[in-house]
User: Fold these one by one.
Assistant:
Number 1:
Amino acid sequence: MIGVSPAELAAHSFARGLDDRQVAQLAARAAGIHMPAGERFFDEGGPAARLWLIRTGRVALDLRVPGRGRLIVETLGPGDELGLSWLSPAAQWQFGAVAQEPVSAFELASAAVVELCEADHELGYQLTRRLLGTAISRLQAARIRILDVYAAPGQWAGGKR
Amino acid sequence: MPTEPITSAGAWQMPAAGLDSLCAALRSAGYRVIGPQLSGDAITLGELESARELPFGWGVSLAPGGYRVRRRDDSAAFGHSAGPQSWKQFLHPPRERLWSARREGGEFEPEAAPQAAERLAFLGVRPCDLRAIQIQDRVLGGPAHPQSGYANRRAGTFIVAVNCTEPGETCFCASMGTGPEAGPGYDLLLTELAGQSEHSFIVETGSAAGATMLTSLPLEPADPGTLTQARDAVTAAAGQMGRSMQADGLPGLLAASHDAARWDEVASRCLTCGNCTMACPTCFCTTVEDVTDLAGDHAERWQSWASCFDLDFSYLHGGPVRSSGVSRYRQWLTHKLGTWHDQFGSSGCVGCGRCIVWCPVGIDLTQEVAALRAESEAADPPPDGPR
Amino acid sequence: MTISAVPSGYRVSASRPETHDTVTLFLEPTGDPIARYAPGQFTMLYAFGVGEIPISISGPAGEHGLTQTIRAVGAVSSALCAATPGQLIGVRGPFGTSWGEADAAGQDLLLVAGGIGLAPLRPALLAALDQRHRYRRIIVLVGARSPAELVFATELQEWRQRDACVEVTVDKADGTWPGNVGVVTQLLGRADLDPRQTIALICGPEVMMRLTARALLAAGLDRASIRVSLERNMQCGVAECGHCQLGPLLLCRDGPVVSYQVAEPLLAIREL
């Protein structure tokens, strides 16, 4: 675990638009981490208590399905946030996350982030906007994937007309 | 026979019997003469062996979704309009073989269908239909389509146009700028005077081929009084149109009306039967069909008339793009009056009124345009007040 | 050479399966080849006795023969996909507008492909790689339904070796896919685009093209810098049959490649 300077955090797209004071507050609670390929960030079902801002490398969100093995539902990369489930009341990971390549990221404890937001509502609003934006764009992407736009007519749900 | 030299300028006059001479002259020059005839309960277009087959004394009563032939008070040969057919069936046939090929041992070589050598003479082309032919020339002829059947047929066609002196109840050529006087493009132009003691025609030429035909006709220089009468009748016809289209700014209006409520209203009446596209003299869309015999060794490609009202017309990846009747009616009207300008540089409508007459539910596109305009102005009134 | 209404005979010299339902045919003319074609153009391919369909040319411009990639979704495409070396098929064309990738000279050329949309983009990519020094970056983003449905999969590495940045993602992974999983627009953020210095060419299902164009606009690109390849029912290829209309456009003549500035309002109208 390594400390994170405000300048380093400011370079991440998540911090775009935050003022220097807000960046400094976040940086003070962040740690720089490295995960080798194959190392797991968390397992499905575990307590959701951390947020990562990915700098380099690729992370796979996965799910174990009996008879089908381990399925990858989505991959995240540089600029993406990993770990949103702490925002919902259940605070439980819905999927697992594993480094597909060596990953470097800024890690924050969700409790620390929540404490910051309670104390500074302006920062809380900014962070909530960003996380909500991420959730919305992933929801939209997921909906598009459900539509199966690359499918041939014979592969459409309900069969060929 | 005229005693003065024939020039291509100037007006001549001939008795109605001169039509016999015209027909005979065209036939002996090798043309098949096509003209109007009374057939069943309509005035249709067919081959004439002589001018006697013309529908002398027959007129029509027209209404949205209504067509009746009726006896006229005079013996006019061309006193009718908006028959169920237009000249396009001869230049752009409903069904045409494009090519055929025989397969032997895996090899085949398509051969274009032989082009017919026949030459057609159209007798009785109204100004609206003359413009329609020119509109189809822009789409189907021209340098982009040098070897097409259309170009070949068109090159050999002789046109005898007839000015309009009695528009039908559903006509609106004046507001579309296509009549009642014929624009250029004819070989000969007739103006019929049938209400007199003597049934006669004013004859003018529009081409060298037309001038050549004059020598075969019983012509005298046009009497100034008769000529004035003819001109006045045509001018008066412009004020007797049964309908009028507010044509200015139509492309812009239609481009801005894709979400108009009016489309839902007209679509609730439209049967998407496609009659309008069959009767319309400018509708040109076709569909291509590849067929084989049972053994699978002889293949042909056929082209036949298609309509944008067909559900299959816009088929893509498993289904039609234009599935609803709303979208198909909107496509037809927007294309005819709007995007035709973008694609071919003019309106696609000549104001002949056939689509109004032959629509089984009597949809009138002049009314639809007026309604779209009203809806557009209600939403966004023009700065100078309603037009 | 004028476009004849009659197909020219081309013989299949080789057939390469790309996926379970997609085949690339390598064709050689039996007589005179068709006229010179440019990336983005298409031909009408004829399977004897079955029919004719529009297929984008997927090989480099300037070949003596023709390369075309076909997905079997109907009777004609299935017959073409089943064509074997030595078999004769009919070709008419070339038709349509071209990508104009050379307009990106001095700038970044971005190609975004969805599914079989990579096939019509491939000629533009190969032309650009042949003149690599003319462009700043060449970026290729590829989205596919699944790893098994990726076309030209064996060429991606070669493109990287020719100094194109190639990123691939799949909508659905199988058990062994080691790469990105997600929609292709999710790759855009990582491309670090300079919106004033990028020409983007997009090809794929219409929904995918609309979403990608929207994401590029959000990233600051001008509509005029984005080009899409549109599709409608095509039968004649010579602007005579009327089927390929999209509003004012006749796509066999005014497309398939269309600037997004022109395409955007048209794609927004339902059932146009």
Number 2:
Amino acid sequence: MANKRDFQRLDEYTWELPKGHRDDMRVPVRLYADSELFDAAFGDRTVEQLINTSTLPGIVKYAMALPDMHQGYGFPIGGVAAIDASSGVISPGGVGYDINCGVRLLASNLDWEEVEPFRDDLMSALYQSCPSGLGGDGRVRVNKRELDQLLSDGASWALKQGLARQEDVEHTEERGRLPGADPSKVGQRAKERGLSQVGSLGSGNHFLELDVVTSVYDADAADAFGLREGQIVVQIHCGSRGFGHQVCDDYVKNLQSAVNKYNINLPNRQLVCAPIESPEGQAYYGAMACAVNYAFVNRQVLAMGAREAFERVLAGKVRDFDLRQIYDVAHNIAKFEEHQVNGKSTRLCIHRKGATRCFPPDHEAVPADYRDVGQPVLVPGSMGTASYVLVGQQKAMELTFGSTCHGAGRTMSRTSARKKVWGHDLRDELEASGIAVRASSMKGLAEEAPLAYKDVSRVVETVHGMGIANKVARLEPLGVMKG
Amino acid sequence: MRENRFEEVEHTADIAIRVWGADLAELFANAAYGMACQLTEVEDVELGTTEQIDLRAPDVEMLLVNWLSELLYLGEREDVAFVDFDLSEVTPHTLQAVVRGGPISEHRVHIKAVTFSQLNIVKTDQGYETIVVFDV
């Protein structure tokens, strides 16, 4: 077990464990955190899991965790691993079960004063238009043939079906379609689960929020994104639902035999992986990309649901009820990107598990209308607290393979949260502080209580201080909808 | 002999249980029961649905993951929780069981998957024991 003394502090936010710490480490381990968040990392198995990650074949530079890190299974949450695309491995454990869990931000042209009289009606309409909770069906049901198209084409499929606008697609990571999706690599169970859940929020930490912009820190970036103080916005946080869970589940099992076949030594079975160029690795990538596309479509269809709710409640009552998409980011994903390694441009498979891409200004993957300022990054806080919009910076390309934090990060187990907080009390508290709550389960609400999470502001100050992603705006909730 | 069939173990983000049994059949039944207790109030489940499960796996840990995953999958498909487990045969590679369950009146949590994290079936003086971590 590594302890704090084994780490060298390289600067205010960088803590490094040399690769000699354990014989099987291939690269050093880095934690990016201020001193308090660094200390917090030793409260669970985060560090051990990151050391395990550093043993993966082909990993380059270092295995790293961002300031919202916490214990996961296999990889820690908040972890980033860059693996050489020609000689390395791909790991379903480095993406997680909720493949392409992510966040979408929609902006209205309305101020809080205009929406306030309709807030409760709006929350009820959002609750009706955006299905949530366990096992619930989504807004759209597809047949098997349509599902295969959706999996291959992602947001382009939604556009053809009239479920998206062109600008929604432009303002989505990868334009809502990860290339290389291969529906023939997806098992029947995953497809069966995928048919009915397109356009559903699910449960757990997923949510839909009505927020107001309370601060703007970077006027140029906020202007480029179309954000201003007092503005009403909507955040949608969810992923690939049962489809993605089943894909991960199937491949965690399928790849167990590949580990033996390719003589890979793993300290933990949940890190199961296969060489990227092997048939097994290619099959996982093809199926994972399908789940990525499923999640992009899922959030897209929910965005249309939010627009429908706004229209139903606000048409004829306010000057403009439209919702414009600011951006959509993934935070559980593996994808191929070019990065500089030892001065050479190298093709890498970047695993981001509970981490967000944050590309800098002038990067070709940033939408044209944002390219002068950089890619928007959406960092949701815990329920009832603040969320942030950040913008990617060049420093991220040097330090974190163009990655930053994804949220607050948990510090307390769900069981402990349930013991400390009653869902009904929490709802009353949130309502008393001016936040409307719609939730299908009070226990589920209690598990997501803010006291179970780190302070998102501290996490955001750290990545801002590191210079990898700068603060653009702060959002505070007016209404929360939980599955 | 321990009184309970399982206990919850602290995990920052997910749910973990420690589970034990005098033999593999009891270990597997108790793990399934511990999982059901995360999904719903098991006392409230009225038995109505019966399924037969027949599994093979290369090793005993994978067999346990497959067993619990199968129960999750069948349960989600039928919107039921399985709470009664009759395991007629369990070897480290094979399993045959008849399971019974019923509709869930109130969901507790949604389990996305059964993981291999911390999973290690060990022999103890009383039989077998392991931790199972569920992704929620």
Number 3:
Amino acid sequence: MRQLLRRLNFFFRRGRFERDLEEELRYHVDRLAEEQADQGASRRQFGSVARVREESRRMWTTTVGEQLAQDIRYGVRALAANPLFTAMAILSLALGIGANTAIYSFLDGILLRDLPVARPAELVVLNWRAADHPKVIHRLSGSQYRDGKHGVASPNYPYAFYQDLQKAQNSLSALFAYAPAWELNIVTRYRADVAEGELVSGGFFRGLGVVPAAGRLILDEDDRPGAPPVAVLSYKYWRSRYPAGVDAVGQSIRINHVPVTVVGVAPPGFFGVNPSTSPAVYLPLRAAPVFSPKPADDEQSKFVARDSYWVEMMGRLSPGVSLEQAQVELAGRFQQYVKSTISSPKEKENLPALWLQRGAGGLDSLRRQYSEPLYILMAMVGLILALACANIANLLLARATARRREMAIRLSLGASRGRVIGQLLTESVMLSLAGAALGLLVALWGIRSITWLLSNGQEDFTLHASLSWPVLAFAFALALATGVLFGLAPALRATGVDLTSGLKETKAGSSGRQARHFGLGQALLTAQVAVSLVLVVAAGLFVRTLSNLHSVDLGFNRENILIFYMNARQSGYEGPALAKVYGDLLDRFARVPGVRGASLSKSPLAIGSWNSTEVTIPGAPPVEGRRDTCVEPVDASFLATLQIPMLGGRDFDQHDMQSPRVAIVSEEFVKKFFPKENPLGRRIGIGGNKTADIEIVGISRTTRYNSIKETETPPVVYVPYTGDLDDLGRSGVFFELRTAGDPFLALNTVRQIVRQQDASIAISYTNTLAAQIDLTIGKERTFAQLCTCFAVLALIIACVGLYGTISYTVARRTSEIGIRMALGAERRRILWMVLREMFSIAGVGLAIGLGAAWGATRFVESFLFGLKHNDPAVLAFSVVVLAGAALAAGYAPARRASRVDPMAALRHE
Amino acid sequence: METRPDIPSGTLYMLILKTLARRGALHGYGITQHIRQSSNDVLQVDEGSLYPALQRMLIRGWVRDEWKISENNRRARYYSLTPEGRKQLAREVRQFDHVMSAISRVIQEV
């Protein structure tokens, strides 16, 4: 050890060493010269100065640098002698390392990244939890999600509680509130468009510790009733919507038809507190009623109603206060608040309880959405890395066994044991290094493709991962450890051999020691086959899920339809004017060349929207599910444009749009509510306890309503869109244009028409209906694609392992096979003998894998559609695929064995 | 002087170590001088072996080096024994005695 340190010291102070040696030798020569007057004689006596210098230097260097160089040279030669194995080992390692790094980089991006704000670790998010939806909450707008064992959870609070907390001295040094402003119609001097906005309290930016890129951010004086409306633009929105060099600060823009002054621009990279959104504009919270399409009184009441939950809150812990202390204090205050709002004994049960969450990473909606699929993918790539490592282990084991003779020769020729082990380790490390280098490329490519897959072509996809170096380092360390461990163990054993027996041992080598080596290799192979089967089964399940989804009959024709969203209410149209502007636009769209039909509806079908209400049916007994009837406001040509067949009665006509007390109901609706009667001509009411004044005039075929995946299609009622224009003003509408060819060809004309109608109206969410529906099964598609990739990867890796091991066995047994053949064994028997070994490995692996797949696929059941997790067809198919792959991998070496020339094999000894 | 015998292989380290043990710190030239004189000009250390050997002994930690002013007022590299070197010397001498007595027994038998 000390020798090594001294050598290292030499290495770093080479220059000094050279000078010292030079001076020392000169001194010696001079002394000799002094001693003997004759200069020439002394030179001769000394010999070559250069040679002495060289020799002295080599004392230091040979054992470090040159030995390593020699090992590497030898290693390259040894690896190059087996190009197929080397390539496959490196490739499987690269794929394993790369896939893991890519997936973990995403997890890192989603689960671990901090918000780009000051001291994110101090931030906390205020949530509440309850066993079930609490009755004391009369209105909740925002999100409420199932929180595993705790029941339901939500981040929404009454504004009054936010004010209470703000007034009180508490364990938070800053507290701020925010709420989504949803889609806003924004008209700048340059263009009109629809973008997401965020309502924020005056303390929002200050609390987060964010510095503006230009102007100022929203302050307390902006966040009070009656303050002049101001807005802060996101950096991205400013850069993309304003010409370069134009200052947005001080300019006036119109948001939802209200003039607003831009006071500042948020810093680049700032996206608010939710990593899954990126608001284009931030508005003061108290200005919400100004921008809302709802009646202003209704909106104002949200600020005083003590039972309406809608604002979200974050805070910053005061110095020295722990999360637990803050939780105790805030939960107490919330409990008091909630108790003060109880209005009936029934509401006393199941009160919501405040629950503080760390907020360094922002809100966790993104995590909830993606973490489950990512964990599944993570498990899969973990298995792949295990496969790759098993392959390396197998390869090294097989090589070590085959090289026992070589080791024995080298040892007997005087190589030190350390030297031989060092040589073997060098090879392992070289394999790992090469695998890691290639793995880096795979990871970079993988991150790009997974981003592309997850985003599904969404333009404003916010989830971006960057290469996680710690993960890459970890995967590499794992691969290196495998290489060293499985390279070292056989190396130690091989170098510990008794030389004579090692030399005597022939290639046929049937000694007990080898059988034991091979036992470990066999176990590894069996495990590989089992793991591969699990991955192939998973891929099979997801592929079948995808094909089931694609073959679902939607009940309408999704091809060649252009859809886009619009809300003219945000440009100032109300009531009859709103109906008229939509009607005018529909007329003009229908006349566009190439457009065969134009219609509008509150939302297109099967893209994930849900619009349910209660229907009143006079005289009918209450039926389960009546609350879940879906109401879809449409125009007269909707059913015709989507090609939904009528089963009875008549379709809507223009007259119905003028006097909208009519409805068309779906087949499902009839089945549920009029199982024995003719519904035509009957009257129903829409909404709870409404007078039944809407006449059913037609029956349409059932279609998928909410999504392709819905297992139960809800009853649907189509009504004229002119019936409730206030509601339509709040939600906006989607237009559907059926075209003759590529739907996007009509888009330019559509934009022109809208601009001519009113330049302040913006359209958004332009897409084809088919593509939009595909987005709803994006997760399934991504899964199917990634899993198929992983399964193919696993198959390749397992086959490489099988092929490699069987090949080695055959090579080692060449002379044994030769003897057998010389003694009269048939080629077919030899072929079978080798294949039998392979099948016994594969058979055990398949049996174990089948059991594992049966259990493991339970976890992905929620991602499947139209089949069970233990679908027999998928299981059978996977077994056949794997057995086939194993046969393919084992056949080549088996055939080679059967072609052994007995004479050549025997002479080989 | 023409047919000077080579130093028996394996004994060079021992000779250097012994020289340093007896004379304290010495430079390379001094070592060759001392070995020559104390062997009555029989043993002549070849510089081509001396300096590599000294380097190797530095690596092994048997000697340490130090730059000092020599007897003729020049800078010279002085080598001196380390405790490790002293132990090594004892080991080599013991082994040498062992081998020598064996050899002389063989020779005397004849």
Number 4:
Amino acid sequence: MKRRIDITPYLFILPAFLFFVVFILYPVIRALLLAFQDYQLTGEVRFVGFKNFVDGVIKDPVFWIAMKNTVLYSIVRVPINVFVGLIIATLIYQCSHRWQSVFRAAYYLPGVISLVVISMVWKWLFNPNYGLLNQLLLKMQLITQPIPWLTSSKFALPSLMLMAILSSPGSAIILYLAAMSNIPKSLYEAASLEGADEFTQWWKITVPLLNNTTLYLLVMNTIASFQVFTQVYVMTKGGPGYATTMVAPLIYFRAFKDYEFGIASAQALVLFLIILSISLIQFKYIRRRGEYI
Amino acid sequence: MMWKQNRLIVIILLLCGAIVALLPTYWMFVTAFTPEEDIIRMPPRMIPQRPTFENFRKIFLLTDPKKSLSKWFLNSAIVSVTVTLTSLFVSALAAYSFARKKFYGKEILFYLFISTMMIPGEILTIPMFLLVKKLNLLDTLWAIILPAIPAPFGIFMLRQFMQDIPYDIEEAARIDGCSDLTIFFRIILPLTIPALTALGIFTFITQWNMFLWPLIVLSSPEKYTLQVGLATLQEQHVRDYGLLMAGASVASIPIIILFFVFQRYFVRGLAAIRG
């Protein structure tokens, strides 16, 4: 029997493949090369070994400030966001179907609005003289002086954290609700028969069985948090001083304002390696524990 | 009895949380409809006392029509619609092949695609910028549209969905003499509509809200998308919060409408990302 190669399957893939090669694969390879090159705006390229890493990472104090701010921001906001998501999802899960869909929508809605808009609104809320936040706090007599939220180097980074914490963890809530509905009801029935109260059931059954979701959310949120850009760009431009300078905005300014493509690429590669290691932790952990839902 | 009481407390707690979550969005609309002189009046009113369209009128007439909010709105719409339709079509074609065809190199190709799913787009901005510059596409909407078309995640999700379509329908059509292309358009695509809708909504919203990449490649105001336009606007009109919130409202309203029309897809779409 003569075998003929059918090219139809390849033709179906061809358009996606071409776009993929030009706009993903090639840039990925180029990104790796650029980190080791000196790139002039004239297009002149020269290999410089690890010079960009020395100048842009090891010896650049601003990069370390940006890294410190980014880590601090992530460590504070990510666990709180995920925990708040778990609590809200637990509460929503107790409600009737009608209320469930109302709350799902209410908590998810802010998540579809653009970060540029959200940042503009928060900048207005944070306005020291007329902003709603200071007005409310003054009225409730929680403060006596208006807080200079974004304009003082002491409050600027905590203000960005506060904004992230008070923003609804919509997708975490949706994912937790989906995972909760997969937990077999029989587990809870067995637990009640043995006299476990509702909190014990939540703590001993629900929370452990949501481990994979929790881990997934922690990793995904950390990755997103390490790339925070829009809030900083719109609200503070990294200031005052370097108080809110973070890694992604720093890379942007190095590349597209200073035109230091080589140095910015080295910094981007370091950021990528950090993100990659965070996601590898997740894969390792999940494989060891195995999926049980 | 005890349970009834608890449920009331749960709902009250959730309502309080929802107020916190929705307050910024609500405050954006309130400020947008408040006349300029009332915005800095203290104490702030939670409901506008003298609602007005003045801020909206001002922002639409702000500069010459070529560089105005309506132009930016149009640019955003062009980009989002084009990317969504093209990306969905290209991804669906590839997903069909990956889901239902046997061919040499299938596994390797598929894993090549999805292995790049974890690479954050932010990392690629510099080489992408140099590429777009070389293609002479800087400061055009093509610079945003073309790089957004390859969607490894979309291929992955559509493949999962297409794998579950029963084979006998396809076999029957093949016996009737239908070509692969006919089967794709007449049978597979219509049966994939739920997944395509969910993916389409997500692609559209992602494009509509995209900021960093358009900010990098667009330089002339008449080419701006809404997000880039708003960000520059808030640098020029630092104190005019009524105007800025009106602009922010205009940028959000299409997305909010989309959200309410396709609400159930948001839940399903997210579940698909996880699963």
